[in-house]
Structures
1.
Amino acid sequence: MRAVLYILTSLAVIGLAFWAYRENYATQQTLNDADKLRQGIRSAHARLAVLRAEWAFQNRPDRLRDLAEINFERLELLPLHPGQFGQVDQVAYPPAPLLPITDPVDVSSMNATEEPL
């Protein structure tokens, strides 16, 4: 009986060692994947910062003004002035829609003591 108990115990220890070995490697693989994702996120943030800097550089007002002057004959762009903008009170908003009558009550045939439904 002791021999069977020793064999079962040693099989359980071997099984648990095998399980721990597999879990260790699965954990290491997951950590490596997470590190790769973090590196990808860092490089994406760096690319985004470069793109934002390029966008700011390309949208400088003096550069855009020069481009508008160079391409005036083709684009006919004029500089903006405050007088070109309207006031809020000049905006013609559409009127509010009338609510439909969904349950009309005929009041001409009612007596003074009756109540509408």
Note: The helical segments are 2-58, 61-70, 72-75.
2.
Amino acid sequence: MLSIILLSVFGIVLLYLGFLKSRAVLLPAALLALLIALGAEFTEWNKSYLYFGDMLLMSNQAILFVGIVLVSAFMVVSLSGDFLEDEAAQPAEYYAILLFSIVGAVMMIAYENLIMLFVGVEILSVSMYILTGSDKRNLRSNEAALKYLLMGSFATGILLFGMALLYGAAGSFTLTDIKGYIALSQGQPSLLLYMGVLLVLIGMLFKVSAAPFHFWTPDVYEGAPTLFTAFMSTVVKTAGFAALLQLLSVSFGAIYGFWWVILAAITGLTLLIGNLTAAYQNSFKRMMAYSSISHAGYLLIGLVALGQQSKPALVFYSLAYSISTIAAFGILLVVAKQRTVDGRPDDTYTAFNGLSRQNPLLAFVLAVSMLSLAGIPLTAGFWGKFMVFSAAVDKGMIWILVLAVLMSAVGIYYYFRVVIAMYFREGTSTPIQVAPFYRFVLIAATVITIVLGLVPGLFQDLL
């Protein structure tokens, strides 16, 4: 709860700091706010408290996911120095909206009542609609925001209707009460509950870009400013899967036989569409969009194979995926800024041609990120996939494991296209300069990725 209060207060303070003539204070203030919120969150470690009329539950599981969200947000904000240089931008507003959106993410992660989940989803979603269309001079950004708003509104309506059906069946919005109702029904709850479960799943699967509810993702990721695309593909996805894990493990574990088949079919479809479509993209941002869809499929495996290994697998995978994705988008921000096509930043694969000779550090960081996302050994991404696949093996879901391994092979193809462009293609000889703090964030992301890949047990031992 402390993080919610602190982030809300700091968001308002940042708006007032925007009135200052100097912008130099905004970025340090936003980073300090995130660090304080992160420290405050872990003061509740190994404690379990209910807040806001028993609507919010802070547990170790919630603290882990909130920690990943705050670390991801810290890295994204660290890469936002260009906002301070753009006279037309209003960085105070952007930073405030980012902090407010994290409040929604925390509510989605730690909810104990479906009303709190709905409020969190709306806070996060409305913030993302605004940030997606924040580049008002770019028609693609405006179009992406409109698409996201319209499709997100339909998904929210479906989610809310599903919650209403769950309330009609169980007589409560509280997760433990819904669990109690299912237990009292002796495994035969009413049809209303099954319909409610289905609609709530549809609404939440839209938020995490699972197929066939993924159609908004490529256009929104491509049209939104790259910085906010990085935020959207990590923070929103982490919060969405944490919410799904909480819902399925607490309330619907007793009717696992009903929803696992539906979720397994969606998982297979998500893996196929995400990986196969990413393989023939020429735009790096669209490739990362479909890559995000494919990683939603891998994370869904952890939910389909719900068991003791699901929580550590989802936590580790979310951390590994978030760090690698932010590093990749951070390098795209630098490269696309210095290479343009028809006056617009170049976000195609050709933008990375010869990067290893222009800036070896950027090439190495991006190579490690691509290797981690592909699940190559000695990176954090490999162990993330290994843990998710192990959960599937424990449940005897060999067919979904075979499909996931085959799709991982397809993923190696399109991730290695970036590596080949950097190291084996000829590019311009103009060196690419990077600010010292920007460089530090990218190096830190690479070090974390490699350390978690070499010593994966270190993360679990620390916890």
Note: Residues 143 and 238 are 25 Å apart (CA to CA).
